[in-house]
Each structure stands twice: as structure tokens, then as C-alpha cells.
Amino acid sequence: MALTAETESRLYRSLRAAAGAAAHLVALGFPTAVAVLARPGSSLFSWHPLLMALAFSFLMTEALLIFSPEISLLRSFSRKVKVRVHWALQLLALLCALLGLGIITYNKHLNGKAHFVTWHGLTGLLAVLYTSGQCMGGVLLLYPKLMKNWTLAKLKLYHATSGLVGYLLGCASLMLGMCSLWFTTLVTSVSWYFAMLCPLLTSLVIMNQVSNAYLYRKRSQH
């Protein structure tokens, strides 16, 4: 029997809500699992995976999900409050990423190892640099008059799109980190595949959110 449009709409909303709930759980669960594995404080290196997981899995994911109309934890709050919380989470994410990058760089220096010679290292560096630029670009949304030839709606759309690129870079860095000797020694078999699915899940949810915002803007123009 064919589904009615109303039934399909309810089913779609239910699936989005379920995926959003899973994204929130993964965003917190992944860095928690990394903390258990890394045992922060046991060595200088131990802070690197935890800080990067906090930056790109928890803080940045929650900063982006804040604007979701269905799965935001701040749905009942005003847009102004959401923007402020988004800024705070993004700045914390950038701080964690910069600290994580600084720690691994210094740790390699102490051990006489080469810097940024792996795909994980290069992608991680690019993600941190991109995130820094993205945060500075967000200032334009606070002061849109600086871009006289751009409407606020366009600035929001481009900021969201470029932010998605930065987020995907961060997730790619996390996934490449899970291919490292340190991670594959501690996590094996099915657990490793489950860990790899974590950034994939949150990436799909965030991509769906951005694409829906783009489609909504297109419809509102007609």
C-alpha cells in the first residue's frame, strides 16, 4: 500500500529526529571513549587525541546542530541566544584544536620525529587552519555592513557551506587518526569499524542540515 504524503512527512521527520539523537550521543560518546583510551595525563601525547576529539566531534558538532529546527538542544531559545552559544562552542573548539596541534607538534619535536608527513597530520593541520579562518569569517555575520555587496542571507548561506567543508575536514582528520598505529593497537576488530562510523554519522546529519537550509532558501526565493 502506498504511503500518503502526510505519512511520508511524519516518517521523514521521525528518521531525522532519530538520526539527530544518535548524532548528539555520538558527539559526546566518541571523545569519552577516546579519553578512556588515551588516559589524559599519562603522557604528553595523551592530550592530543582527546583535545582533537573534543574539538571536532563534540564542540563543533554541537555548535552546528544548534541551528537545526528539529534536533537542536536549544530549540526554544531565541536566534540571538543560539548565535552566542554557537560562537562560544566554536571558539572552544578552535582553542582545543590549536592546543591539540601544539601538543603533538611539541611532542614530535621532543622525540625527534618529522612533522606533518602523514595524511592524518596534513589533514589535521589543514582542518585547524581552516577552522581558524572560518571563525574569523564568522565576524562578517556580526558586522554584515563590512560586506556592502552581500546580503545577510547570502552571508549566512556561504558561512554555513564553508563551515561544512571545515567540519568535514575535521572529521576526515579524526578518521585518519583512527588508522594510526596508536589507535589500531588499542582498538581492533568490530570496535574499530564502529568507531569509524561515528564521524561518518555526524557528518551525514550535518550535511543534511546544511542541504535543507539551502533548499529552504531556494524555495523562499520563488
UniProtKB/TrEMBL annotation:
Enzyme class, first EC level, given as a word: translocase
Entries under CDD domains matching the protein: Cyt_b561_CYB561D2_like
GO molecular function: metal ion binding; transmembrane ascorbate ferrireductase activity; transmembrane monodehydroascorbate reductase activity
Cofactor needs: heme b
InterPro entries (UniProt xref): CYB561D1/2, Cyt_b561/ferric_Rdtase_TM
Transmembrane segments: 17-38, 44-67, 87-106, 118-143, 164-184, 190-210
SMART domains named in the record: B561 (SM00665)
Entry's localization field: Membrane
Cellular compartments per GO CC: endoplasmic reticulum; membrane
Name of protein: ascorbate ferrireductase (transmembrane)
